[in-house]
Amino acid sequence: MHQLRQFNNDFMRYLFNLFTFDARNKNPYSIWKFCGRKQVDQTYGKLQFCEFCKPDLFPFIFWLVLALSIWGLACTLKQTLKLLRCPNSKLGMWRQREFHVFGTRVLHSARLLGSCAIIASWCMLILGLVMLKPRLMYPWIVINSVVLGGEFIVWVYDVMTGHIQLELHTGLTLMMPFLNLMMVRCVMVVMEQSLKNHVEDSLRIF
To answer: Which stretches are transmembrane (predicted)?
Structure first.
């Protein structure tokens, strides 16, 4: 007599991952998935696809995000103090802008309010990284997503109307903040999944 045994969840999950493929991604090589040589070899051998947030890259991403967060907070504090001490000082922006509608006082007031909101989001982001609180990272992600979306729309409009030329420097000013946003989201997702699975000890700083 043959004894029948029930399959466990791990075996069924293995079969599901083995025989389930996306119709659009049958080929492991893709022009939209940029992988290094090591990742390409792993992809070819395991039929897996390259992702931005890799376990071997996560330590570098985490500490880089933390360093950029502290640097961003320091720069925003410096800009805010400058606006408070010198109301008529020239605004320092990450992309050059010319406003012909609002007055100088209105622009400085709006910039001051925006700086305060950004300072709060930077502080919450740093606390979320240090205290392992991914929900504190949401305000920073929302604010920067809205800002980058607006900047991209304005940039496309300026290029199409001929106000600015399509240059490498201009593209980098948009790509670098977008890359930072991707790294922050990577850290947030890893924290959420680690907390959900109760394996967050390896992510704690203290």
So the answer is: 57-77, 112-132, 138-160, 172-191
Q: Which residues contact 131 (CB under 8 A, 6 or more apart)?
A: none
**Tokens 């410096």 -> residue:** 78
DSSP assignment string, 138-189: HHHHHHHHHHHHHHHHHHHHHHHHTSS---HHHHHHHHHHHHHHHHHHHHHH
**pLDDT tens digits, one per residue of 54-91:** 777 778 888 899 999 999 999 999 988 888 887 666 65
Torsional sign, CA 57, 60, 62, 68: negative
Say yes or no to pLDDT of 29 above 90.
no
State pLDDT tens for residues 95-119: 555 555 566 677 777 888 888 999 9
